[in-house]
Amino acid sequence: MVLYVLYAKADLEGVASLSLTPGSDICVSVRNTLAHDQKRERIVVETSELHRADVPDHEKHRAEHSSHFALTWEGENTRSTIRVLEGVDVDEKEKKGKAKKRSHVGDGIVTRDIQLRDNGRFVPILKLECDGLEPYAFHPMGKEFSAINGGGKKIDDVDLSSGEWSDYDLSSGTSLIKNFETKFE
C-alpha cells in the first residue's frame, strides 16, 4: 500500500480556516499504477462507509482489507483500493461499528485545516492509502468543505468547484476564498 497526501492551497480573505468536512464524499481521478493509460475519471469515494471485500470462499486465504473504494482494472484479478485515513480509526470502526478520532503522525505528515497564515502555500489536508491505483486529480463537488469566517461563524457546504467562493455576513463582512488549487504527492 502506498500513502498519497492531498495538498491544497488557497487565498483566504475574511476566512479564519478552511477544512474538509469529516465524512463527506470526495471526488478524485485515478490511474492504474501498472498501466498509466488505464484511468478512471471523477470517481466518488464515500469516506463515511467502509466496504468489506466480497471474496469468494475459495479465495479467503488472500489478505483482503476493508476500503472506502475498490475497483478491478481490465486484465487484472485483484482489487485496487482506496482507504481514507483521515479522522476515523478504521480498525476500531471495523470492530465496533463506530467511528473514533485518530491522528496520523507516524508517517511524519500531519493533516490540518488551511488557515489565513497559509495563503499561497500548500497544506496537507487528506491522506489516502492506495493499493493498485494512484490518485492524480482532486475535484471539489460542492459540499466537502467548511469554513470559519473572520467572526468565528462556521459555514458548511462551501462550494469550491469553480476554484472560488464568497459569502457575506452582516456581522463579519465578506468572506472570500480564491485561487483554490490541489495536488497529490
Describe the protein's architecture and organization.
The protein starts with a strand and ends with a strand. The strands form 3 sheets. The chain has a 6-stranded antiparallel beta sheet with strand order 5-6-8-1-13-12, with no helix packed on it. Strands 7-2-10-11 form a 4-stranded antiparallel beta sheet, with no helix packed on it. The protein has one helix spanning 90-96, and strands spanning 2-13, 15-20, 26-32, 39-45, 69-71, 80-84, 114-115, 123-131, 133-138, 145-149, 154-158, 165-169, 173-184. 4% of the residues lie in helices and 45% in strands. It is built from 1 helix and 13 strands; from the N terminus they run ββββββαβββββββ.
Summarize, please.
The chain has one helix and 13 strands. It has 185 residues and is mostly beta strands.
Topology at a glance:
Blueprint: E1 2-13, E2 15-20, E3 26-32, E4 39-45, E5 69-71, E6 80-84, H1 90-96, E7 114-115, E8 123-131, E9 133-138, E10 145-149, E11 154-158, E12 165-169, E13 173-184
Antiparallel strand pairs: 1-8, 1-13, 2-7, 2-10, 3-4, 3-9, 5-6, 6-8, 10-11, 12-13
- Structural Rg: 18 Å
Number of strands: 13
What general outline do the C-alpha atoms trace? elongated
Q: Which blocks of ≥5 consecutive residues have pLDDT under 50?
A: 87-106
Secondary structure tally, helices: 1
Q: Proportion of β residues?
A: over 45%
Share of helix, binned: under 10%
Adjacency order of strands in the biggest sheet = 5-6-8-1-13-12
Derived structural class = mainly beta
Question: How many strands, what sense, and barrel or not for the largest sheet?
Answer: 6 strands, antiparallel
Would you list the SSEs in sequence order as H and E?
EEEEEEHEEEEEEE
Kindly report how far apart the N and C termini lie: 14 Å
Mean pLDDT: 86
